[in-house]
Design goal:
Helix content: 10-25%
Largest sheet: 8 strands, mixed
Number of domains: 3
Shape: elongated
CATH architecture of the largest domain: 2-Layer Sandwich
Order of helices and strands: EHHEEEEEEEEHEHEEEEHEEH
Bound molecules: uracil
Number of strands: 16
CATH topology of the largest domain: Alpha-Beta Plaits
Structural class: alpha+beta
Oligomer: single chain
Radius of gyration: 22 Å
């Protein structure tokens, strides 16, 4: 909950004093209703209008979430399932955050959230070479030859994937499954699942363990933390630079 005039000031519409004048003059609506009460408090879901224009917070914010399985990576879901936005703390709802790229419903791990569209495009647009590391539990015993195939590119939907790095993390003969790590510098639809299926090892479980240098270390499932200015800068540099380690 936040005072209406403070929220208006954060949206850059006016100073707090000026915002108070506007409220007094009946120029401000909350959820379609004119509010003239000075201490009025709003919550994340409230829509504030000044002279019929909806306000939005201009401040740019950048977060990493440890996305749990069973949550959709979009702002809303027509089937009413939980989304990465619906599980955010209430005080962040006003920032109109959205996910940077997507993770499948049943994939967990590192997911960035921001309200900066340009930042998102730089990180996940077609020219980005930002490395993203996944750990996949797959069916069957993965061999060195399978890894070579992944690394040199496999065909998915008529597209040959770019060269990448992959490794065998473990092989579980008893359960006829393996854990495979893969570091991609692109992001096609269901890319990891499609690549594993293409080499005959369908994915059973998938986790994104890093996005650039960002991990979910210290975050419980569903938790978020704000990125530091240094982390934001590194993500932008790593998305574009050639030969970045
Ligand atoms: N590749 C997939 O197949 N699924 C994800 O969620 C991310 C990458």
């Amino acid at each position: 909950m936040e005072r209406l005039q403070k929220y208006m000031a954060r949206c850059g519409i006016a100073s707090r004093r000026k915002a108070e004048d506007m409220i007094r003059e009946g120029k401000v609506k909350v959820n379609g209703e004119v509010i003239t009460e000075m201490g009025y408090k709003i919550s994340g879901n409230d829509i504030v209008e000044v002279e019929d224009k909806v306000l939005e917070i201009k401040e740019k914010r950048y977060f990493v979430m440890n996305k749990p399985r069973g949550v959709i990576s979009s702002s809303n879901d027509e089937k009413g399932r939980q989304t990465v936005i619906s599980i955010l703390p209430q005080e962040l709802r006003n920032y109109r955050l959205f996910p940077v790229g997507r993770l499948d419903y049943d994939t967990k791990g590192v997911l960035l959230l921001t309200n900066d569209g340009e930042f998102m495009n730089t990180l996940v647009g077609p020219t980005s070479i930002l490395p993203k590391e996944y750990l996949a539990r797959v069916e069957g015993e993965v061999t060195k030859n399978d890894i070579l195939q992944l690394e040199s590119g496999v065909e998915i939907d008529g597209y040959t994937t770019r060269r990448c790095k992959a490794y065998i993390a473990s092989v579980d003969r008893k359960n006829n499954s393996s854990s495979v790590g893969i570091i991609l510098r692109e992001g096609k639809y269901h890319q990891v699942k499609q690549m594993m299926a293409a080499i005959g090892h369908p994915v059973k479980r998938l986790t994104r363990i890093s996005f650039g240098e960002i991990t979910v270390e210290g975050l419980a499932e569903g938790e978020i933390r704000e990125l530091t200015p240094h982390e934001i800068k590194r993500l932008l540099v790593q998305s574009q630079a050639k030969n970045v380690k």
